[in-house]
Amino acid sequence: MPELPEVETTLRGISPHLNKQVVAGVFIRTEKLRWPIPKDLPKILHGKTIISLQRRAKYLLIHFEHGTLIMHLGMSGSLRILTTPTTPDKHDHFDLVLTNGAILRLRDPRRFGAVLWHSGDLTDHPLLANLGPEPLLDAFNGDYLYRATRTRSALIKLVIMDSHLVVGVGNIYANESLFRAGIKPQLSAGKLSRLRCDKLVNEIRSTLNESITMGGSSLRDYVDSDGKQGYFQQHYWVYGRTKEPCKKCGTSIRQIKQGQRSSFYCPICQK
User: Fold this and answer.
1) Which residue, 76, 159, 245, 250, has fewest beta-carbon neighbours within 10 Å?
2) Which helix (H) or strand (E) holds 81?
3) How many domains does the structure of the chain reveal?
């Protein structure tokens, strides 16, 4: 499933082609993804100018003067920029066509993505209203994490994956960040010291930034806006490396289930 680095990589890839451009047409080939695509979207967007693009959590926001197109890649989606007309295949469900000739195409084999329209205040939208701070911005810091976890008995890995506390730290990057911080995923969040909170925040930010630099992780269907795969998966410390030797100490990486998801850790390097 595309996580924050993959969505951020997609945003950086599509922005130069879309920003300040005018919509020439909208083509909806599959109305029902995770939620139905608004049927009147072609009428809403025709002739309108894109004023800016933004990422919020794992959502891509394409802003117009009269509202915002909200897009989500779901479990298998990707957005491609096409500079010449190309025949769509059965998994290409949505096209945004611009007057400069570029086409933004959503490919989503499993149809868990989303294309939605919101004309009001985005902070009121049910998908965005209760999100926590962005992990790459200053509002997410050691002091914030320390205060937010004082009464939390939940396991630290599950806590940092809670989008109400901080957005965009999915399963891959939670595993990797905890290893880098030397914190075992089974630790109760409320037991983290202030110093370890500082360390974990720094490693979450560092891990996400490194993945963005490498184009994200391509484990299944994900490709960037140019059709290229990311290569951060080649640098995992623990994720998916069950029984392989730890790259630091040589101990076998262990795998456990937490909240229906797999966690990977080194029993020596993480305490």
Assistant:
1) 250
2) strand 78-82
3) 2
Tell me how far apart the alpha carbons of residues 90 and 82 are, in angstroms, rounded to a whole number: 17
Q: Do 155 and 103 fall within a single domain?
A: no
Burial of residue 120 (number of CB atoms within 10 Å: 0-12, 13-18, 19+)? exposed
- CATH number where 178 lies: 1.10.8.50
Q: Is 257 a catalytic residue?
A: no
Structural domain includes residue 71: yes
65 flagged as catalytic: no
Count CB atoms within 10 A of the CB of residue 82. 18
In a domain, 18, yes or no: yes
Is there a single domain that holds both residue 96 and residue 203?
A: no
Active-site annotation holds for 58: yes
- List the catalytic residue out of 2, 38, 135, 185: 2
The single residue of 58, 80, 196, 254 carrying the catalytic annotation is: 58
2 flagged as catalytic:
yes
Which helix (DSSP H) or strand (DSSP E) does residue 146 occupy?
helix 142-148
Share of the chain above pLDDT 70, in %: 94
Domain extent at residue 158 = 142-265
Q: What is the pTM of this model?
A: 0.90
Q: Residue 258 domain-assigned? A: yes
